[in-house]
């Protein structure tokens, strides 16, 4: 997003009049803030304008209401999940986590955020990541992926155990 706030309608991204209305929207963004030292250290509200613009796009373009299940950000990475209002009562076990793999192996300039939930009886896990740059750096991106997938953990309160994302789980 090049550290910009939304200035144009998101309808071209989110609305397809020739297709059925989706039940779930999962939207991932990178670089919603400048990747500077201040933003690496301070929690920010840069995700709020994006979430509000998404909500407004739904209101203006869809007959049915969408509700925010959860949003999660790590520095400039943002993941938001919405469901149709009719399904919200059937969404449970909503958890999130983030894993920084950038500066010193932990910085949030690179990394991933994840939201996992159950909808009806199906478990879903969505990960949004910002990996090492440059076309030639395939090894760096593979290492980032491995680090993110190893670090992400979801604390399941009800069962009092940890569930990990591993091997495409």
Give a structural overview:
The chain is an alpha+beta fold. It has a single domain (11-164), classed as Deoxyribonuclease I, Chain A (4-Layer Sandwich). It contains four helices and eight strands, in the order αβααβββββαββ. It has helices at residues 11-14, 37-41, 47-61, 138-151; strands spanning 24-29, 66-74, 77-84, 91-100, 111-119, 122-130, 153-156, 161-164. Strands 1-3-2 form a three-stranded antiparallel sheet, with helices on one face. The chain has a three-stranded antiparallel sheet with strand order 4-5-6, with helices on one face. A hairpin with a 4-residue loop joins β7 (153-156) and β8 (161-164). The radius of gyration is 17 Å and the shape is globular. The model is unreliable at 159-169 (pLDDT under 50).
Indicate the multimeric state.
Answer: single chain
What is the CATH architecture annotation? 4-Layer Sandwich
Helix segment tally: 4
Q: Which structural category do the helix and sheet elements fall into?
A: alpha+beta
The string of secondary-structure elements, in order, is HEHHEEEEEHEE
* Inertia-based shape: globular
- Spans of 5+ residues with little confidence (pLDDT < 50)? 159-169
Mean pLDDT figure: 84
CATH superfamily: Endonuclease/exonuclease/phosphatase
Over all CA atoms, what is the radius of gyration? 17 Å
Counted beta strands:
8
Strand order of the largest sheet: 1-3-2
Number of domains: 1
The description of the largest β-sheet is: 3 strands, antiparallel
């Amino acid at each position: 997003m090049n550290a910009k706030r939304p200035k144009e309608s998101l309808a071209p991204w989110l609305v397809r009049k020739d297709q059925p209305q989706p039940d779930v929207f999962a939207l991932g963004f990178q670089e919603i803030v400048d990747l500077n030292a201040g933003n690496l250290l301070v929690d920010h509200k840069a995700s709020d304008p994006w979430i509000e613009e998404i909500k407004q796009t739904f209101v203006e373009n869809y007959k049915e209401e969408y509700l925010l299940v959860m949003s999660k950000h790590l520095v400039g990475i943002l993941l938001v999940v919405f469901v149709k209002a009719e399904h919200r009562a059937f969404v449970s076990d909503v958890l999130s986590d983030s894993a920084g793999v950038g500066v010193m192996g932990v910085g949030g300039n690179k990394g991933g955020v994840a939201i996992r939930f159950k909808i009806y009886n199906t478990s879903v896990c969505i990960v949004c990541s910002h990996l090492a740059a440059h076309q030639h750096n395939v090894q760096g991106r593979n290492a980032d992926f491995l680090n993110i997938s190893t670090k992400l953990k979801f604390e399941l309160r009800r069962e009092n155990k940890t569930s990990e994302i591993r091997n495409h789980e």
